[in-house]
Amino acid sequence: MRHFAVVGSGPAGFYTAEALAKAYGDAAKIDIIDRYPVPYGLIRFGVAPDHQALKAVAKRYDKVAEAAGVGFIGNVCVGTDATVDELLEHYDAVILAIGAPHDRKLGIPGEELSGVIGSAEFVGWYNGHPDFADLDPPLGGAHAAVIGNGNVALDCARILSKTRAEFEGSDIVGHALEALGKSAIKTITILGRRGPHQIAMTPKELGELAHLEAALPLVDLADFPPQEADEALEPGQRKSVTILRDFANIRANRPKSLVFDFFAKPLSIEGDGHAERLIVERTELDDKGGARGTGETYEIPASLVITCIGYSTPPIAGVPYDERGGKFLNENGRIADRLYCVGWARRGPTGTIGTNRPDGYEVAEQVAAAMPAGSSGDRPGGEGLKRLLAERGVKATDFTDWRRIEAAEEAAARAGSPREKMVRVEEWLRAVGR
Ligand code: NAP
User: Fold this and answer.
1) Ligand 1 midpoint to CA 9 (Å)
2) Among candidates 111, 194, 103, which has minimal Cα distance to 152?
3) Which of 61, 88, 215, 353 could form a disulfide with 14 if both were Cys (CB 3.0 to 4.6 A apart)?
4) How far is CA 361 from CA 315, 343, 358, 368, in A?
5) What confidence score (pLDDT) does residue 339 get?
6) How does the average pLDDT of the chain come out, rounded?
7) Would the pTM count as exceeding 0.85?
8) pLDDT by residue (tens digit) across 134-181?
9) How much is the average pLDDT of 286-313?
């Protein structure tokens, strides 16, 4: 028998567990360990609540969790409740799939002002992440700024601009729905430090902005290169840029605006104790396609500033870490003997949910090559780990507990919504009698 620990129950963790279960059959036990009492990581806390079709992938993960030999151990923080070394004592291999939950910083003056928040915080707030349930983002001003030209910036801008009716069928948490319903924000400026050809937004996500009930996407065609230049773009990017251009043709009166401000590099954030305005420098593309400042500066009013400029993986004591890349130091997923990483903790924060599948399968293959199915080890696995955790007073949860929490969340759902998420660790634990 082999014992494997997969740390993290987001897409990367589940695809790795699935691959290991397929490779080993009943010759291995696989524990998926998560910091929170509930599974799914990015699917639960990251994917937008109005993108339920994307969240449905969790149903596939349920099948993995309920397969023979696979277990879920929740409410266990690796690095605090148990160290990586202790996991390595208990398991034949440990695969870190902890994602990249920390916001990268802009590194500009004023970033520490209240009203400046990272996308992990804002997304966590509307998605019921326990660390951000009390975020209370300032929504009382008329103007917000969203920094970054990726899909996360689109998520944040869209959520800020939607009406209550547009959240029907979503699982946005009650506290966010109430607060957004009272929001005074009328203008949301989306800042890109480069131009329309350099956006990292995908067509489907961008296209949604054209159909918002109360907000109109605005672009300035003067920011775009001549239309012929779009021919050189790869098809997906060309589609995105065409959608952007078409925003200029929407003839509609909507009370809110989503203003695309390209070639706009934030220099500082100013305000009296809280964010009031962004100071921005106009840029142009340099020879390598990077953003070069022109020296021209201007102000954008904003009492809420959301930075959507990428994420990093938190370091774990004793695990080699790539400071610049914000991920674990690894070679094709291998960190050290019997220690691996997958997903964003391996590659950095890029790619879709599906990108994690081949990633997890590849690492599972490496594990299987090092420890062929049929070979066996003498480590105690999950039973030993659970004894250690119990001695330390850690209230670990299992998948049956999750099913009870899930049922309680579904029972509490407002009309038309799949669930009303509990947003505090204590609530989850109380729901399962801990
Ligand atoms: P991303 O796609 O890497 O975009 C980050 C953006 O931040 C880029 O526009 C980048 O500009 C900008 N940026 C970085 N540093 C900056 C700085 N110092 N100042 C100003 N701008 C800066 O990252 P993301 O939006 O966080 O998304 C992460 C991944 O999740 C992506 O692969 C994304 O597609 C995926 N995702 C998918 C969905 C979906 O499918 N519905 C939803 C959300 C996220 P430069 O290009 O100039 O560096």
Assistant:
1) 23
2) 103
3) 61
4) 24, 11, 5, 10
5) 98
6) 97
7) yes
8) 999 999 999 999 999 999 999 999 999 999 999 999 999 999 999 999
9) 98
Q: Are 146 and 156 a contacting pair, CB within 8 Å?
A: yes
Rounded CA separation 72/56 (Å): 19
- List the one residue out of 73, 101, 102 whose CA is nearest residue 7: 73
**Residue 203 three-state SS:** helix
Q: Which atom of ligand 1 is nearest to the CA of 107?
A: 18
Q: With 0-12 CB in 10 A as exposed, 13-18 as middle and 19+ as buried, what is 209?
A: buried
Give CA–CA dist 96/33, Å, rounded. Answer: 10
* 8 band by pLDDT with thresholds 50, 70 and 90: very high
CA dist 24 and 372 (Å) reads 8
Q: In sequence order, which ranges of 266-372 are alpha helices (DSSP H)?
A: 344-347, 356-370
Beta-bridge mates of residue 117: 306
What count of Cα atoms within 13 Å lies in the side-chain half-sphere of residue 84? Answer: 22
Q: What is the predicted pLDDT for the residue at 291?
A: 98
Distance CA 157, CA 304 (A): 11
140 C-alpha vs ligand 1 centroid, how far in Å? 27
* Cα 194 to Cα 259: distance, rounded to the nearest angstrom: 15
CA of residue 206 to ligand 1 center, whole Å: 13
Q: Is the pLDDT of residue 377 over 90?
A: no
For residues 284 and 384, give the distance between their C-alpha atoms in angstroms, rounded to a whole number: 59
Which residue owns the Cα nearest ligand 1 atom 40? Answer: 352
Q: What's the rounded Cα separation, in Å, for the pair 369 and 197? A: 43
Q: Are the C-beta atoms of 338 and 93 separated by less than 8 Å?
A: yes
**pLDDT score, position 284:** 98
Cα 55 to middle of ligand 1, angstroms: 20
